[in-house]
Request: fold
Amino acid sequence: MTKTIDTQPISGQRPGTSGLRAKTRAFMEPGYLENFIQAGFNALGGVEGKSLVLGGDGRFYNERAIQIIMKMAAGNKAARVVVGREGILSTPAASAEIRVRGCDAGIILSASHNPGGENEDFGVKFNISNGGPAPESVTDAIYEFTTTITTYQTHDADDVDLSALGESSMGPTVIEVVDPVENYAKLMRTLFDYDAIRAMFAGGFKMRFDAMHAVTGPYASAILEGELGAAAGTVFNGKPLPDFGGGHPDPNPVHAHQLMKEMFSADAPELGAASDGDGDRNMIVGRHCYVTPSDSLAALAANAHLAPGYADGLAGVARSMPTSRAVDRVAQALGISAFETPTGWKFFGNLLDTNKATLCGEESAGTSSNHVREKDGLWAVLLWLNILAARGLSVAELMQDHWSRFGRDYYSRHDYEGVDKAAAEALMAALRDKLPELPGTPINGMTVTAADDFSYTDPVDGSTSAKQGVRIVFGDMARVVFRLSGTGTVGATLRVYMEKFEDDPSQQNEDTQQMLSVLADAAQSLAGIKEHLSRDAPDVMT
Ligand code: VG1
Ligand code: CO
Reply:
């Protein structure tokens, strides 16, 4: 039976870079999740007669939230809800399901790389019919609804058994529990040369994949070990746990330290990889060779044609603004266009839909292509495997070859986490005020050539997004970018992104922080980080 329940508007909870994130306990408050879900349904123009994909990364409260959302979908007269078995769907797999099944929308439960648990973080993302994150027009509408709605619709029904595949009905709605891996694995087979990768593993190639006790475990085990013949034990931390084993499921050298240690040991395997909470990020590390996400994007762009799915070449590439300009250099050499978008995958959707870009990436370890409309961690690992198999080079050799051809953009991001929000906003405001006077100013032996607050106009629908981060550019040689995170749940996080170009191979230096120290000093003198935030050093440097 359908019921209308009174609810209170939730204020001040605007969806950020990637959906709504908050403390798990906030989502568990009566009406909080329900309010956001109903607001999302309303913003989609209602879900009556529509089909939805639903799943999450398995974190604490995942299954409970799924039961609530299924009942709300029925209360809102949805035609069908496709839900992953045990409530599991990685973000890229959910995107694939929406596209393969022609669904109208998707709801993904994840706070991505944020820790999970009753005292940690939870999140909800709404995706649209192209499989991608809802664009700002929709997330703005969701926000408006959350502040005004007073009722939500639900359906009185028993919980659904999410362990059994198959269909059941809940009022007007068909609930279909599906294997979370099947369609995703099928899609991967169409893109890559599995025979070549299989032959490489059969020839003794070794890799390690750290699933960080998050959602990619089942996907990586099925594909790498099951289909491609990687040795048993290649995938570790493979069981999704509600608290990710107490870890921080963010695939970077800091949080994937166990993998990093192995990859820099004497008997390191050829390839190491890791993925995040919801499976959309990837880290790539070769034997004794860490590949920055910006370099990975550039190397994939330069070599993608070696995989069957991209044999005709790329229509174009796109990167988020703080991502290094390494991929632009590849695009220029290939004679294809390169787009610069604000941070967040939703900004790539139109470029992919209209075939202006085939490959997209972010410095935060997100890369993907037009096969889905989300970033895709395991996809990036498979493309790397395909390229290594085709070229017969090690990761380190491939990167040396890449840098000697295109030059090298040294890159690092410094994060100041959990800082006072007002102080962080004051820092950004002071920096913005300075921008007009900066061009022409010499700083530490470099000269500022341009300084602005990034504003983006979507080339397809003409929508604009302003205040997307401060860029301070030193010609083609270097850049410093400042922005505040839109995914945190406590205080604010300042991100400082630095890059420096070097095209002389004799000047290579594996100590990236040393290479960039002149820019870190410039960032400090430009923004007064220490003074504003009362912090001596960043919390995380990646
Ligand atoms: C961060 C990253 C951004 C990424 C976003 C979502 O956002 O910087 O590149 O798209 O997380 O990633 P922010 O606003 O905190 O910098 V995830 O793996 O949610 O889905
Ligand atoms: Co993620």
The first strand starts at residue 2 and ends at 6.
